[in-house]
Design goal:
By secondary structure, this protein is an alpha/beta fold. 37% of the residues lie in helices and 27% in strands. Helix 7 (166-181) links the parallel strand 7 (154-158) and strand 8 (185-190). Helix 3 packs parallel to helix 6. It is globular.
Length: 238
């Protein structure tokens, strides 16, 4: 479904991605893990067209995405839910959700909105409330719901659990699992490696813009280097 081939990208003259190779198959949940500045968000931005690539290719469903504009990439079925939710605080929950349907036929919009409200009954209760007045967890539901309004084939989530209490982190994990149950492929960026690896099929570890390790989630969870660096598990003393 999604394939990155030797992708390099930079912010101005500052390199941020180095020869990134990545694959996501249809129906998978794949996670990108790494410290701040590792290149996780930059990878999503490169895929969604927000960060121009310097070299390499990005393919999706057999089509080359490189050089397409962001709205053209959305129309091909890739939706990016950015870090920090990025809601319009002075607009209602309903209005924020409707913004996600800009690329869909108008006849689908009302039906899709009801589907989102059925999936997130809590935000249905706050349909007419200003998004800026919601809790962090509720705002995250609206942000994900806005992404789902576009009926994506691939949903990219950037740090959906950031700043949330542990109970809400578990709720985010359940939401991601439910999205996969709808037949939507998920590419998940997370600093909470424990949560991400518990729900993902496979993972990639990024460090300073390079992929240094990849594999099945179970294998990564059992890797001593991953346990020490990302899961907070101390290795046995020699």
């Amino acid at each position: 479904m999604l394939r990155l081939c030797s992708v390099q990208a930079s912010y101005g003259r500052t390199p941020t991605l180095w020869n990134v190779d990545l694959n996501v198959a249809a129906g998978e949940v794949v996670t990108l893990i790494g410290a701040n500045g590792a290149g996780k968000s930059s990878t999503l931005r490169a895929i969604s067209g927000l960060l121009p690539t310097r070299s390499g290719e990005i393919w999706f469903d057999g089509q080359l995405l490189t050089r397409l504009r962001p709205h053209e990439i959305v129309r091909r079925g890739i939706v990016h839910v950015p870090e920090g939710r990025r809601l319009f605080g002075d607009m209602t929950v309903r209005e924020n959700l409707l913004l996600g349907a800009f690329a869909r036929p108008k006849l689908e919009t009302d039906e899709r909105l009801e589907q989102i409200f059925a999936q997130f009954p809590r935000i249905k209760e706050r349909e007419r409330q200003l998004a800026g007045s919601l809790s962090g967890g509720e705002q995250q539901m609206v942000a994900i719901g806005r992404g789902l309004m576009a009926v994506p084939k691939l949903l990219m989530l950037d740090e959906p659990s950031l700043g949330l209490a542990p109970k809400l982190v578990r709720q985010v994990a359940e939401i991601v699992t439910s999205i996969r149950g709808l037949g939507i492929t998920v590419l998940l960026v997370e600093q909470n490696a424990r949560m991400a690896l518990s729900i993902a099929d496979r993972g990639y570890i990024l460090q300073t813009g390079r992929i240094i390790l990849s594999g099945r989630s179970d294998d990564l969870r059992n890797n001593p280097a991953v346990q020490t660096a990302y899961l907070g598990i101390e290795g046995n003393p020699g």
